[in-house]
Amino acid sequence: MTVVHFTAHLARYLACPAQQVDGATVRAALDAVFASNPRLRSYVVDDQGRLRHHVNVFINADAVADRDGLSDKVGPQDELFVLQALSGG
Fold first, then answer.
1. pLDDT one-digit tens code per residue, 4-44
2. SS3 letters across the chain
3. CA distance 40 to 37
4. Which listed CATH number (3.40.630.30, 3.10.20.30, 3.30.565.10, 3.30.390.50) goes with 2-84?
5. Could you state, in order of their start, the residue ranges of all structural domains in the chain?
6. Burial (CB count <10 Å: 0-12, 13-18, 19+), residue 84
7. What is the mean pLDDT of the chain?
8. Mind listing the pLDDT tens digit for each residue in 60-86?
């Protein structure tokens, strides 16, 4: 099963512990997480299902290539890391 991790920054707003999920793509893995935690969806994807501009997702150490369709393949040994970019001055 793919393990999906969320940045501690998101945990300040809602519970989002790491989860093991089934799914052959980033979209399928995230949808499995959102099924058990629907409020998390709006923090990660927009109303069109695309990654929000300030969110990055990595498969192991590689950034996802398809930020719109989230069609990058994941396997049972992969880890997804969902991070919110921080900005400020």
1. 999 888 888 888 999 999 999 999 999 999 999 999 999 99
2. CEEEEECHHHHCCCCCCCEEECCCEHHHHHHHHHHHCHHHHHHHECCCCCECCCEEEEECCEECCCCCCCCCECCCCCEEEEEECCCCC
3. 6
4. 3.10.20.30
5. 2-84
6. middle
7. 93
8. 999 999 999 999 999 999 999 999 877
